[in-house]
UniProtKB/TrEMBL annotation:
NCBIfam families: OPT_sfam. One of its GO terms (biological process) is protein transport. Keywords: Membrane, Peptide transport, Protein transport, Transmembrane, Transmembrane helix, Transport. It is a multi-pass membrane protein. Pfam families: OPT. Belongs to the oligopeptide OPT transporter family. One of its GO terms (molecular function) is oligopeptide transmembrane transporter activity. This is OPT superfamily oligopeptide transporter. InterPro entries: Oligpept_transpt, OPT.
Length: 795
């Protein structure tokens, strides 16, 4: 529970310990905003500043440092009298957790996947909380228990954090589904439940122990949170202060809700307008380069998208930092050139296979007949790879665009580690600075593990030291008035999850050896530091799944099941850790006490894991035949689990495919290249420290985006970068008073309205409820050929 501050303090806005000199907030020369200071502070976005006119009266330039930005992003104030521990919070939080967890797991087995977003949960929680506060009588003991006071911001934050932690699809259910359908089943239901729980919580335990590194510093901004916090402030400030902003939010929300019915359902051509395909509908080169309205159709170059669901599907361009946008755009353009060159240069027999695909292909394929590889034909009865059968069948082929993705991902992996060590050493080094001899000896102290005795009460000396630390987020300094969650609590979550996971892996006959599980844990902790910091600072997150599958393939060749469970405890644990770190920062920005945050996140994780497992068991038991079929139905599909199984088999024969001298040797050589990639720019920065260009380049992001266009719908990227440049460059530089007041609020409204529409449409017309209602075909709705490109017309 929180410590009890004085009542007078609760009503006063609290400032950071050092006052901000507003004369330093502007770029007096009118240059672009300087968001890299001594190469340790990356460019970060600016958002809600209610009194935007005050800023414009000072100067027109943007803010400079991370601390200056974060104190204008969100008000640096707190009201400790607001109580999150209410029946209403748990009722809404648990209800939304069940809703999100069940929906996400069901959608995983659908041909069309819908992702439950935090913005969607924020809007739902506000609607439910306001309704309960309004309609439940506040009379008598029961009334005061159910509705003690108006719905407040801390209740809202706690309910959203609980639901957010639950609204994921655990990767362990993917591995368990594959084992059930193709590998002889699993012998113990209890082990399946606990392996799902442990794989979801192990990343949370490690992430919680690293919060001093990845949450508390100002530079760990998590820009994806800024629109959500902006909405939280707007919804819970007195209506007189936010009347105009509140009105604009709901107008934009309603407008995008109505508009999205056109590109999503009535007029799908609007989601991918390709002028080049309209000019020449029979040109396959145009399809590969300019097409992108269908999955794996093309690269979508210069296509224009009017569908916010696709534009902001993995992050709105309006909140993405300009440095991240710029570097990703460089990689995006380079990736188009590289992919087209590989395919039309017929590298790795590229033209004998589809331009884009993630499947394995047989060597008998040619330009007119693509033959999928028969993975089952090379397996022993115990589902390990048979070397003799593999020699007879030959090693499979991959498409050139997919190999390009693997190469650039591996280059980007090591480049990220080197980049963070060179440019952000001060931040990431805290991840191992604690490993002194005295601290390691403390690990042998039995009192460390008596977590129930640890209260989290800080001494006044510790509070003062943190308040004087210039690197600590000013918002976190307000949190010092609350009792902290002891690190031993997070360590116990990790330890219990680790022991449970190791036990269940043997019971489940996963074929993952104990030493493989230990290595997976070491990878999880190490990557959490580097890639967690990258995600927190830039808003950019890697897809590390193929990298972990490659590691497992080399360490445990011939074991596809071991590959999947290794990936579950690395890739899934890392992704879960990132999400929970993001939500820890969201709690900090909304001043939710650490213990309330801990409870809501743990409850959400456990609920989500249990419901994921229950839904997986139900669906697999009842839809096994459909899930194993190649085509599926319009209601159920096993495409996701089939792909996971295919990749596991491919990586289990990695030495024959990717080692030095093998066909795809550059996939492995790429690791070495990545170590060198950031060095030239860092060296030039050291020699020319006043030239901003060298510090602005992030080779890790550029390299990853070189291979981004290997899958999916790509027609939205041109619109994505245009809108990003408009918001983060034009508005921020030339119309700062508009930017600080509206940019992030409108981004949040666009996200919320779109996600509500997609959710309703999924069940109303897209088959989520079992019956689809397709819109009649017309010129703007040509099924499987929305953009009129040649590929779909011929296919």
């Amino acid at each position: 529970m929180a410590a009890t501050p004085t009542k007078a303090d609760s009503l006063v806005e609290r400032k950071p310990s050092a006052d901000i000199n507003h004369e330093k907030l502007v770029d007096k020369g009118g240059e672009m905003d300087k968001c890299v200071k001594e190469a340790s502070i990356h460019e970060v976005p600016l958002t809600n500043y209610d009194d935007a006119e005050a800023l414009s009266k000072e100067k027109q330039g943007p803010l400079a440092t991370a601390e200056e930005i974060i104190t204008h992003v969100i008000h640096v104030d707190d009201d400790p009298t607001l109580n999150p521990w209410t029946f209403r919070m748990f009722f809404i939080g648990i209800g939304l957790s069940a809703f999100g967890a069940v929906l996400q797991e069901i959608m995983y087995f659908k041909p069309q996947v819908v992702y439950v977003s935090v913005m969607f949960l924020t809007v739902l929680a506000q609607t439910m909380g306001t309704a309960m506060s309004t309609f439940i009588p506040r009379k008598g003991a029961i009334g005061r228990f159910l509705n003690p006071f108006p719905w407040n911001r801390k209740e809202h934050t706690a309910a959203v954090l609980m639901a957010s932690a639950a609204s994921v699809s655990a990767l362990s259910t993917e591995a368990l589904s594959v084992q059930k359908l193709w590998y002889g089943g699993y012998p113990n239901q209890v082990a399946g439940i606990f392996i799902t729980l442990s794989s979801q919580l192990i990343g949370y335990g490690i992430a919680g122990m690293m919060r001093t590194v990845l949450v508390y510093p100002t530079s760990m901004l998590y820009p994806i949170n800024l629109p959500i916090t902006t909405v939280m402030e707007t919804l819970h400030k007195p209506k007189a202060e936010t009347k105009q902003r509140f009105k604009i939010f709901w107008l934009v929300f309603a407008a995008i809700f109505c508009w999205e019915w056109f590109p999503e359902y009535i007029f799908p051509l609007l989601s991918a307008v390709s002028v080049f395909c309209l000019i020449d509908r029979n040109n396959l080169v145009f399809t590969n380069l300019f097409g992108g309205s269908q999955g794996n159709e093309g690269m979508g170059f210069l296509s224009v998208c009017f569908d916010w669901n696709y534009i902001a599907g993995f992050g709105s361009p309006l909140w993405m930092p300009l440095q991240t946008l710029t570097n990703s755009f460089i990689g995006y353009m380079g990736g188009i050139i590289l992919s087209m060159a590989l395919y039309y240069g017929n590298v790795w027999r590229a033209m004998d296979f589809p331009f884009m695909s993630q499947l394995l292909y047989d060597q008998s394929s040619n330009t007119t007949n693509y033959v999928p590889y028969n993975e089952i034909a090379i397996l022993n009865p115990d589902f390990t790879v048979n070397s003799t059968l593999l020699e007879q069948a030959g090693t499979p082929y991959l498409t050139a665009t997919y190999v390009n993705y693997l190469i650039t991902s591996n280059v980007g992996l090591t480049a990220t580690i080197v980049h963070m060590l060179l440019w952000n050493y001060a931040e990431v080094s805290l991840g191992w600075a604690w490993m002194t001899l005295s601290n390691l000896k403390k690990l042998l102290d039995p009192s460390l593990y008596k977590f129930w005795r640890h209260t989290g009460v800080r001494s006044e000396q510790e509070k003062e030291r943190l308040r004087e630390d210039p690197s600590i987020d000013p918002h976190y300094k307000l949190m010092l008035d609350y009792d902290e969650v002891p690190s031993s609590w997070y360590f116990c979550v990790f330890l219990v999850s680790w022991i449970t996971g190791l036990t269940c892996l043997y019971v489940m006959k996963s074929t993952l050896p104990w030493w493989g599980f230990i290595i997976a844990t070491l990878f999880l902790a190490t990557f959490m530091i580097f890639f967690g910091a990258q995600y927190a600072i830039t808003g950019f997150g890697y897809n590390l799944q193929p990298i972990f599958q490659m590691f497992a393939g080399y360490m445990m060749p011939g074991r596809p099941l071991a590959n999947m469970y290794f990936t579950t405890y690395t890739y899934n644990g890392l992704g879960q850790g990132f999400l929970l770190l993001r939500d820890l920062k969201l709690a900090q920005q909304n001043k939710l006490s650490p213990k309330a945050t801990f409870v809501t996140q743990v409850v959400g994780c456990i609920m989500g894991a249990l419901l994921n497992y229950v839904m997986m068991i139900t669906i697999v038991e009842n839809q096994a035949t459909i899930l194993k079929s190649a085509e599926g139905t319009n209601i159920w599909s096993g495409a996701q689990i089939q792909q996971f199984n295919t990749l596991a088999i491919a990586w289990s024969i990695a030495p024959k495919m990717f080692s030095i001298g093998a066909r795809y040797q550059w996939v492995t050589v790429a690791y070495l290249v990545g170590f060198l990639a950031p060095l030239p720019f860092y060296i030039m920065h050291r020699y020319f420290p006043h030239q901003r260009f060298w510090s602005y380049i992030n080779t890790a992001i550029i390299l990853w985006y070189l291979g981004e266009l290997f899958v999916g719908l790509n027609a939205s990227l041109t619109s994505y970068y245009i809108l990003g440049a408009f918001g983060q460059f034009y508005l921020r530089r030339y119309r700062p008073q508009w930017f600080v007041k509206w940019n992030y609020l409108i981004s949040a409204a666009l996200d919320g309205g779109t996600q509500v529409m997609v959710f309703l449409a999924t069940f109303a017309v897209f088959g989520g409820s079992g019956n689809s209602v397709p819109f009649p075909a017309w010129a703007g709705n040509r099924v499987n050929n929305y953009d009129y490109c040649a590929y779909n017309a011929l296919g």
